[in-house]
Amino acid sequence: MPDSHRETPGPEALNDAIRTLWARAGEQRRSLTADEQRIYQVLVAAWAEATGAEQELAA
């Protein structure tokens, strides 16, 4: 059974994951694979949601 109480990573952790994904591909001098592109899209969407939520709380 999935843990529905799992904490969502914050914007900094998500940003680090995005940078790591790009760095790995860059070190290997290649584009992101199809799987990495899907992961990237999910990470960016989660980051945008997390930063939007933080801005709403600050307002």
Automatic annotation (TrEMBL):
Official protein name in the record: MarR family transcriptional regulator
Source species: Streptomyces tanashiensis
